[in-house]
Amino acid sequence: MAHLEIGHEVGAGLTAIDPVPDEDTEGSDESRLALGRFVSLARRGRGMSIDTLAELTEVDVGELLSIERDAHHLPDTRTLYQLAQIFGVSQHKLMGLSGLTRPKDLKYVDEAIRYAALSESVARLTKEEQAALDGLIAVLSERKGK
């Protein structure tokens, strides 16, 4: 166990990390996607920008962006505590979704993943979004040496 804890902060109670072996991370990506989707929708549902959420939680904007957009990002325990406080949800369950702890009851993880899949927006792109996408496609489509 000491070998698995190398490089982690020492903590007890909610701040203690349950080391997760590297080979057991495939489910973590799905649950982190659900965590990111939850944070994004909860933030947007309250009419908050990422900057506003960063101010309220006293968390770096980059950390919040990583949570919302990067399934491989392992969030900081303090960040999850702050998000749980702002959104009125269980810190334990956010930690389970993040992969920092192993949930004993996987029902809420499965439900969160299902929720994330069902909450994907199918709204058409705005004119501005379409123009940005077209510009990005043009840049990505350019051939090397042209």
From TrEMBL:
<dbReference type="InterPro" id="IPR001387">
    <property type="entry name" value="Cro/C1-type_HTH"/>
</dbReference>
<dbReference type="Pfam" id="PF12844">
    <property type="entry name" value="HTH_19"/>
</dbReference>
<dbReference type="InterPro" id="IPR010982">
    <property type="entry name" value="Lambda_DNA-bd_dom_sf"/>
</dbReference>
<feature type="domain" description="HTH cro/C1-type">
    <location>
        <begin position="39"/>
        <end position="94"/>
    </location>
</feature>
<protein>
    <submittedName>
        <fullName>Helix-turn-helix transcriptional regulator</fullName>
    </submittedName>
</protein>
